[in-house]
Write a structure and sequence with these properties.
The complex is a heterotrimer of chains A (about 375), B (about 300) and C (about 280). With about 375 residues, chain A is of the alpha/beta class. In chain A, about 30% of the residues lie in helices and about 20% in strands. Chain B has one domain. Chain B is globular. Classes of the chains: A alpha/beta (about 375), B mainly alpha (about 300), C mainly alpha (about 280). At the B-C interface, helix 2, helix 3, helix 7, helix 10 and helix 11 of B face helix 1, helix 4 and helix 6 of C.
Chain lengths: ~375, ~300, ~280
């Protein structure tokens, strides 16, 4: 699978602070006081009028989002006070899997759902897919109820585990799901060929899925999620159990999909990967959304400046830099300033090694 | 509408493929075909050491009863086992998530799965019926051979018109029993009964939490269904003479449990008695409407089920 | 996050659950009365077709045992009856006549519309059992042997008559009864009656139509008048074409009538064959 931008295999650098993205205002919601499911006369939809605005972050591909058009058409996915409770009859308790979630995801975004196990990420995805019914609140996908046929025509889903039929081979699987999505005839044949190439599954297309490895199952899962060219993709732990090469390929695919204007909502435990692809994230804990915003705004430290130089500095040169900083009147003492070497991430090192970019594997970067 | 039917058909074919690729069902089918064939042996047991020309009636009765009985019994097991694990397996393996994430309604999913079972049952009944037809044909050959042997003992038999008449009468009697078009009627009624059993199992599986529960409950309803006629007659006849509890119980059975015993009219057909097609259509119509009701209730329950 | 159940009302909206229950109740409520009516109609049609079988009473259940009861209850009545019939054959071979009689009763109770059980059951009793009783020299008194033999003949006749009640259009059972009166009881007049009834049933072989008249030839006092009436009635029933057909044996009928007209000195103007 080849996904390239500007001729090189894509991975952003480990830190994002040197990346200049436009005005990065924190797009924070008021904690716990935002949107309850307020049923007014018409009942349901959230309009721009009652949406507390700060400055909105800039997105590459989004043109005129700010308008007085109804929000229902402007969001790929939205939830208003979305709640899901499960009865635990024997314990005489109720499990609150999701507690009054308010979320707005714009078309073309890559949105990450983060959180520990049991924090409500999968529940959110299932509610947005219409697989389960909310106890309270509302969810919408492109302004439509998530369990409607029209909404699901525009949605693709890669489940966390391979929830496919083991007795079907790769071709049959794609054909089956394609037909269910209304793709058939020569168009389906063409689409299957395209997707088999995209996910690099030529070897496995004649074999039953029960003989597939985990990586192959993820790939066929992606292929079936894309069979009908959906506008919105839900990826539940897309790189779980996949080797680093495979998960890099999946990451590249996500970026490619973003370039094509698709919206991607995915959940993951692998924070570094989320950092590399997501535009915005939400962090969940115990069924509640604790934090939400663009990565730039969330990860940028409020205070401080980092300067990267391509050359090594000797001790004497470091002293001269310190003196210059002292003269600039910034008000930082010597102890506050540190000189360190840039670090690769372990994943970057692994990929470079595996893909033969570094000849020797014995070299270790210095650490100070 | 067309696209909905297409989706139902797609799921149905997938279900049939899954069932056909399962070894358990293949074994059951092979066993049933063998048993249908063995009905011939059982018929020999019934009339040991006797002149088979004269006792063809008894032998053919055995072959018909055992053959159709095997179709009914094994068809029942196939219907029950394949339907009972239809929904639980999808829920357990979570393959239902992937399907319902596609533009497929829950009702279409359920109907598609049921269609798959119907196609499977049709295939199994067709194969077993072929085996049954083969045994009937074999029995006919045996009967004709024995009859001929009995008459040709007298070398001048063909010159006596009375004897020839008797011979023709015997041959016609054999053909009448082995080539009775009413056998098709019987097999259709057996098939209808199997479909109803399957629909009951589907209904229970829409709210049951395990396959075992579905299997046991469906089997009990199947048995109680054979006594529903008695319960209904009792309930309609005895208005005020029984306690509310008894009346309620019998009433529940009469109002909700299907009358499975009405399908044992198949025994009459196989015994050679005339059962008009109008009656068969009446029964088939009853089964069809009951099927629609069961499927509608299944769809309602499944639509609201947490998955 | 788990919270006590009392602090929240529901996990699913109430309207959601009520809607489901209401729909199910509506569907079943509409269907239930229609179901009863339809089933009654089917049951009535099946009564008319004279489909039946003894109801599953405790008595029948005791005779069948548990396994076979389940078989009957699950709609395998005919197969169960066939299984029981296997033991009839066994009892016949072991000459356990009382056991055989009980099993014949059971089979015919399970499937009264299967003529083969009545046909062969009656044969087993009226011929096999009765002849065995006649030749049973463990009983030294010949009169007692005759009485025992007659007992089994009567049992066989009961089976045939009940078979006819359940299968009134089955020519074989009428024929079997006639044969019993003819061969076992030597009551040729009654045999003639049953042969006549047999010949009137659908699909009856043609030769039976003559047997009734032939029986009168065998009457002890040679009841020529009854025989003449029977032969004449047969001749008049046949069409001119049928009289020419070999299977109806027109020549023989004519010969019998001529002989009897002569013997009884029927006036020429009243004869069938005046010449």
């Amino acid at each position: 699978m080849n996904a390239e931008i500007n001729g090189q295999l894509l991975w952003p650098s480990a830190t994002r602070t040197n990346k200049l993205s436009g005005p990065s205002e924190l797009h924070r919601r008021p904690a716990c006081g935002g949107y309850r499911s307020q049923k007014n006369g018409s009942g349901r939809s959230l309009t721009l009028q009652n949406f507390p605005l700060g400055k909105r972050p800039a997105f590459d591909k989004i043109s005129t989002m700010e308008s007085s058009a109804p929000v229902a058409a402007a969001f790929a996915a939205e939830t208003i006070g979305l709640t899901k409770r499960y009865p635990l009859t024997w314990k005489r308790k109720v499990l609150v899997a999701l507690d009054h979630l308010d979320l707005l995801i714009k078309p073309g975004e890559v949105f990450g759902l983060l959180g520990p196990n049991g924090s409500g990420k999968s529940t959110t995805i299932k509610l947005l897919l219409g697989l389960i019914v909310p106890s309270e609140g509302e969810a919408r996908v492109f302004g439509l109820p998530p369990d409607s046929i029209e909404a699901r025509r525009r949605v693709g889903f890669l489940p966390e585990n391979p929830y496919f039929y083991g007795f079907l081979n790769g071709d049959e699987t794609l054909r089956f799901y394609g037909k269910l999505c209304g793709v058939n005839g020569p168009r389906l044949d063409q689409r299957i060929e395209e997707l088999i190439d995209l996910v690099n599954l030529q070897n496995g297309r004649e074999r039953p899925l029960r003989s597939y490895s985990k990586g192959m199952l993820q790939r066929i899962g992606l292929a079936q999620a894309l069979i009908h060219d959906p506008d919105l993709l839900f990826l539940d732990e897309p790189t779980a159990g996949v080797d680093p090469l495979g998960s890099a390929q999946i990451r590249d695919l996500i970026l490619k999909l973003k370039k094509m204007g698709k919206t991607v909502i995915f959940s993951s435990h692998l924070l570094e990967q989320v950092q590399e692809v997501a535009d915005r994230v939400a962090i969940f804990s115990l069924g509640k959304k604790v934090l939400e915003g663009s990565l730039d705004s969330l990860l940028t430290e409020n205070k401080g400046t980092q300067i990267n130089l391509p050359a090594d500095l000797s001790a004497e040169q470091q002293q001269r830099v310190l003196a210059a900083i002292g003269q600039a009147g910034i008000g930082a003492s010597e102890g506050d300033i540190r000189f360190t070497r840039p670090h690769l991430s372990l994943e970057q090192l692994y990929l470079r090694t595996v893909q033969g970019k570094i000849g020797s594997t014995t070299q270790e970067p210095d650490r100070k | 509408m067309i696209s909905a039917l297409y989706r139902i058909l797609t799921i149905g074919r997938n279900t049939l493929t899954e069932a056909v690729r399962q070894k358990v069902l293949n074994v059951l089918l092979i066993f049933s075909i063998v048993l249908v064939g063995c009905s011939v042996l059982v018929s020999q047991l019934a009339t040991p050491g006797l002149d088979s020309a004269g006792l063809f009636d008894a032998q053919i009765k055995f072959v018909k009863d055992f053959g159709c009985g095997a179709i009914g019994l094994f068809g029942f097991f196939i219907a029950l086992l394949s339907t009972a694990q239809l929904i639980p397996q999808e829920l357990h393996n979570r393959t239902i998530y992937t399907i319902l994430a596609k533009p497929v309604r829950r009702s279409e999913f359920l109907l598609g799965k049921f269609l798959g079972v119907v196609l499977l049952l049709a295939l199994c009944v067709a194969l077993m019926s072929l085996a049954f037809a083969a045994t009937l044909y074999w029995q006919e050959l045996q009967g004709l051979q024995a009859t001929k042997a009995a008459y040709t003992a007298d070398p001048h038999w063909q010159s006596n018109p009375v004897v020839v008449n008797l011979y023709n009468h015997d041959v016609a009697s054999i053909h009448q029993q082995t080539r009775d078009p009413q056998i098709i009627e019987a097999i259709l009624l057996i098939f209808a009964k199997l479909i109803m059993t399957s629909a009951i199992a589907l209904l229970i599986s829409t709210f049951a939490t395990s396959s075992i529960f579905t299997i046991v409950t469906t089997f009990m309803i199947y048995l109680i269904g054979h006594m529903e006629g008695t319960a209904r007659a009792f309930w309609l006849a005895n208005g005020a003479h029984v306690s509310l509890w008894q009346s309620g119980l019998v009433g529940f059975v009469s109002l909700l449990i299907p009358d499975m015993n009405s399908f044992t009219i198949v025994d009459e057909i196989l015994a050679g008695n005339k059962v008009p097609w109008s009656h068969a259509f009446n029964l088939l119509g009853y089964a069809d409407v009951y099927l629609i009701v069961l499927l509608a209730v299944s769809i309602v329950i499944f639509d609201y089920r947490e998955i | 996050m788990e919270i006590p159940a009392s602090t929240v009302s529901t996990c699913l909206p109430l309207a959601h659950r009520l809607r489901r229950a209401a729909l199910v109740a509506l569907l079943l409520g509409l269907w239930a009365p229609a179901k009863i009516v339809w089933e009654q109609r089917i049951a009535h049609e099946q009564d008319v077709l004279r489909y039946g079988g003894a109801p599953m009473t405790l008595h029948l259940r005791d005779q069948l045992g548990q396994g076979l009861t389940i078989g009957v209850l699950s709609g395998m009545r005919s197969v169960v009856a066939d299984f029981v019939w296997l033991s009839v054959t066994t009892s016949w071979m072991t000459e356990d006549w009382w056991q055989m009689g009980a099993e014949i009763n059971l089979c015919t109770a399970l499937q009264p519309r299967a003529p083969v059980f009545w046909d062969m059951g009656g044969w087993h009793l009226a011929w096999n059992a009765s002849i065995a009783a006649m030749e049973d020299h463990t009983q030294p008194n010949p009169l007692r042997r005759l009485k025992a033999s007659r007992f089994w003949i009567d049992r066989g006749r009961d089976i045939y008559l009940r078979g006819i009640e359940n299968n009134p259009t089955n020519w074989q059972l009428w024929r079997d009864t006639a044969l019993l009166y003819d061969q076992r009881l030597k009551d040729f007049r009654t045999a003639a009656y049953y042969y006549q009834k047999a010949s009137e049933q659908p699909n009856a072989p043609i030769y039976l139509e003559r047997f009734s008249a032939i029986m009168y030839n065998k009457v002890h006092a040679n009841d020529d008048l009854s025989a003449y009436v029977a032969w004449k009635a047969l001749w008049e029933r046949l069409t001119p074409e049928e009289r020419q057909m070999k299977q109806h044996e027109g020549d023989r009928i004519e010969k019998e009538i001529r002989g009897l007209e002569q013997k009884l000195s029927i006036p020429k103007e009243k004869r069938v064959f005046p010449n």
